[in-house]
Design a protein that fits this description.
single chain; alpha/beta; Rossmann fold; 7-stranded mixed sheet; 7 helices; 7 strands; 37% helix; globular; binds 5-O-phosphono-beta-D-ribofuranosylamine
Length: 206
């Protein structure tokens, strides 16, 4: 085993892979947080299902290994997910963070990573699952909105919550202004939630 791996296990840093589909601002927040010497996790790879995902360029500049596994290159979703799993195992990932990964993974893959796969969703789950969460929040007239980091289960946006952050809905908010406020909260919440899981302070018990 190379010296680097021995050092990581000696410092107990968890090895984290991040799955993205686009901009990758949450991935970037995790990468920046993981630069702190006392952060309990290290980012070991960024995988995208889209070759043109903007976030891949940032990961490459940071010298983080990247991979693309696109559905269109495989006969079906199950085969694509086997390929994704192979990349994650190749990176010796302990934890997988979905960060704007816009594809539902197959139950087999999700079960395999049960308790070790996290997602961030831009709403206070169980409110506003799926897409267009900011429009949904405004349509209900809610005074509060926010984001949730949760463990991933086979159902979309359904796993147990690890950490939520609330933000106010302000008079005159548009989906865009609300999304921007929630995104700031996301960037603070995801690194905290990942640290909780990496330290064993949050565990999947169901
Ligand atoms: C975020 O709002 C995240 O909560 C949602 O998709 C968006 C991804 O943004 N799942 P980014 O790619 O992290 O910038």
């Amino acid at each position: 085993m190379p010296a680097v791996r021995r050092f990581e296990s000696a410092t107990n840093k968890k090895r984290v892979a991040i799955l993205i589909s686009g901009r990758g601002s949450n991935m970037r927040a995790l990468v920046e947080a993981a630069k702190a010497p006392d952060y309990p996790a290290k980012i070991v790879g960024v995988l995208s299902n889209k070759a043109d995902a903007e976030g891949l360029a940032f990961a490459a500049v940071e010298a983080i290994p990247t991979a693309v596994r696109s559905l269109r290159d495989y006969p079906d979703k199950a085969a694509a997910d086997v390929a994704i799993d192979a990349v994650l195992r190749g990176w010796h990932a302990d934890i997988v963070c979905l960060a704007g990964f816009m594809r539902l993974l197959s139950p087999g893959l999700v079960d395999r990573w049960r308790g070790r796969m996290l997602n961030i969703h831009p709403s206070l789950l169980p409110l506003h699952k799926g897409l267009h969460t900011h429009e949904q929040a405004l349509a209900t007239g809610a005074a509060e909105h926010g984001c949730t980091v949760h463990f991933v289960t086979p159902g979309m946006d359904e796993g147990p919550s690890i950490l939520q952050t609330r933000v106010p809905v302000l008079p005159g908010d548009t989906p865009e202004s609300l999304a921007a406020r929630v995104l700031v909260a996301e960037h603070a919440t995801y690194p905290r939630a990942l640290a909780m899981v990496a330290r064993g302070e949050a565990r999947f018990e169901r």
